[in-house]
Amino acid sequence: MRGAGAPDFFYREAQRLGYVARSAFKLLQIQKHYKLIKPGSSVLDLGCAPGAWLQVACQSLGPLKNGGLVVGIDLKKIKVPPLHCDSRVKTICADVMSLPKCRIRALSPQQKGFAVILSDMCPLVSGITTRDAALSAELGMRALDLAIGRAAPVHSEYVTQEEQSGSSFSSDDNGVLQDEGHLVIKLLESEDVKDISQISKQLFRKSTWLRPKATRPSSREIYLICQGLKPKAKL
């Protein structure tokens, strides 16, 4: 889900250091500034292809003895990169937009959810600014819904049929992000992202924007860094 482009400094550095994509440096900067991933953390990577964020996330867990887990989900079936990853990393081929929260939660340790959720999902860019921004916002809202649950006022199209079935509130109303957990969402700059920002400010202790240095000059990508999910914010 990460776009390609002409080789540049970050591309060459990724090749030199064994990362599968230049996007590794975006998460490296986020991790350096915010230290979201702690040793032993459980991490969910949404839109994980081609695997650069899996590599950085695993590195951030520290030595294998520290424990921890990194689960990557993507529409594409990808193999875990051989460098910078170990047995704590696994990938699932699935559509995040239709995958029920209960199935995602089942992938976490003791099925108690994840400490960190990373969403580097991005739509196939059409070149139509308004359309691309709307699709990006839709992916961002889905990431927020997966993390928070029905505490996030998302529209019905972000809720799967399985989640809609049964009673009005079920066990799947809950998000898969742990209390005090962190969420990173990639978005395309537009008016559409303001809603997501306003929601996150109410639910997290801190919410800030970051445009990583590794972002291409022509890109409208920006990352919303949500830190410390308030315990009462989840249903």
TrEMBL record:
Single Gene Ontology MF annotation: rRNA (uridine-2'-O-)-methyltransferase activity
Q: Which residues form the Ribosomal RNA methyltransferase FtsJ domain?
A: 19-228
> Which Gene3D superfamilies has this protein been placed in?
Vaccinia Virus protein VP39
**Which sites are catalytic?**
186 (proton acceptor)
- Keyword entries, A-Z: Methyltransferase, rRNA processing, S-adenosyl-L-methionine, Transferase
* Listed Pfam families: FtsJ (PF01728)
Q: Which InterPro entries match?
A: RNA_methyltr_RlmE (IPR050082), RNA_MeTrfase_FtsJ_dom (IPR002877), rRNA-MeTfrase_E (IPR015507), SAM-dependent_MTases_sf (IPR029063)
Task: Report the family membership.
Answer: Belongs to the class I-like SAM-binding methyltransferase superfamily. RNA methyltransferase RlmE family.
Query: Protein name, please?
Result: rRNA methyltransferase 2, mitochondrial
User: Could you tell me which species this protein originates from?
Assistant: Acacia crassicarpa
Taxonomic classification, please? Eukaryota, Viridiplantae, Streptophyta, Embryophyta, Tracheophyta
